[in-house]
Every structure is written in C-alpha cells, then in structure tokens.
Design goal:
It is built from four helices and ten strands. By secondary structure, it is an alpha+beta fold. An eight-stranded mixed beta sheet has the order 6-5-4-3-9-8-7-10. Strands 1-2 form a two-stranded antiparallel sheet.
Length: about 210
C-alpha cells in the first residue's frame, strides 16, 4: 500500500498500526525498517554546518512522541503525533503540532539541558526529570522513541542527567498532557448542542402556531 509520507508512517507507528520491524520500500527500491526511518531523520537545512562557515548547533535529532507530562515548570504544548526532538549545545528543543480549538498549530519549546537532572529508560520510553523552582520538586516528561536503541542513544546526549534514584518499577499514571484541549472540545460540543436545541425549539414553535 502507499506510497506514504514519512510523517504518515511515523504517525502509524505511534498508533501501533506499524511496528518498528515493519519493512518499507522506497520509490527507488531501497528497503528499510520503520525503526531505521525513525532513527535516521534528516536534519533541517537551516542548521547546515557548511553555511557561512559556522558549525551546527544541533548535536542529534530524534523523532519522538510526547506521552505524558507532570508539573508545569515549563509550559509544554499538548503535541500530537510526531514530535522532533533536537539536542543542541545547551537546550533540548521539542517541536510539533497541537490542537488549539478547531485548528492545529505548530509550536516549539526549549528545555535547558542543565535542567534535566535525571533520566530513565524503559525499553523505548524515556522519562525525564527537570529541576523545578519548588524545593525537592521536579517536572517529569515522558517520551516515546519507538526503539530501545534510540531511547538509549537519546539519553546519552543528556550530559547532566543521572539515573533516576527512585523506584525503578513501573511508574504510576501521570497527568495526560491534553486535559485543557479536552475541555475546549467539551465546551465546543456543549455549545453546539445548545444552539441546535434552540433552533429546533424555534422551528417547532412556528409549526405549532
């Protein structure tokens, strides 16, 4: 089936319609796995190290999916689908799309690398703990990197992160990053229902008279 764009294939992987071992065939006949496609994401030309004799700020680039967030030290949009994670010299840059009302918007957030104090790898999932201004408090972010190899490599690029000192068992469920978006949709649906009821009431009243 296909052909599909890279974004579509990664989206199918996020929704588990494809596995990391699923094989892909390019238009030129080359064959690779979904895991290879996710891991070897081409870099943005804007960060070409050959431009103007400067060097690239990007150290590594990964395709991830934002699963959960706990804490609000950094405002992180409710990214949906594929998210680009760029590890630069001093920040972790997350860029993707999120729903705002009835539309999707593109946004990005930069997290200081020296603020990522702990990291944990659970197969293809990475938990990050960011330093918070509150005493003994952290903001926690959970990312899906699709393969254990990519998850391990991702953590290796975090120079200040040490292993999480807490319990290594399966963590308790975190707050979903999308509650505000759900509230927006619920409000929109409720408002539409009220309008429909009013319209039906007016039409029925006219027929009665």
């Amino acid at each position: 089936m296909g052909p599909y764009t890279r974004r579509t294939i990664v989206g199918m992987r996020i929704k588990k319609a494809l596995s990391s071992d699923s094989r892909l065939i390019a238009l030129d006949g080359a064959e690779l796995s979904v895991a290879d496609l996710v891991k070897h994401r081409p870099r943005d030309n804007a960060f070409n190290p050959n431009r103007s004799g400067s060097f690239s700020l990007v150290q590594a680039t990964f395709s991830v999916s934002l699963l959960l967030v706990e804490g609000d030290e950094h405002s992180i949009p409710a990214f949906k689908g594929e998210v680009e994670a760029r590890i630069q010299t001093d920040v972790l840059r997350l860029a993707g799309r999120f729903r705002s009302g009835f539309r999707y918007k593109d946004d990005r957030v930069k997290l200081p690398l020296d603020g990522i104090v702990h990291a944990r790898v659970r197969s293809s999932i990475v938990d990050l703990w960011l330093r918070s201004d509150a005493r003994d408090a952290f903001q926690r972010i959970t990312l899906e990197l699709f393969t254990p190899e990519a998850a391990g490599e991702f953590v290796e690029w975090l120079p200040h992160a040490t292993p999480w000192p807490g319990d290594d068992s399966q963590p308790s469920p975190l707050r979903d990053v999308r509650p505000r978006q759900n509230m927006v949709w619920a409000g929109a649906i409720a408002g539409t229902a009220v309008v429909l009821v009013l319209v039906l009431t007016v039409l029925l009243s006219r027929r009665m008279y």
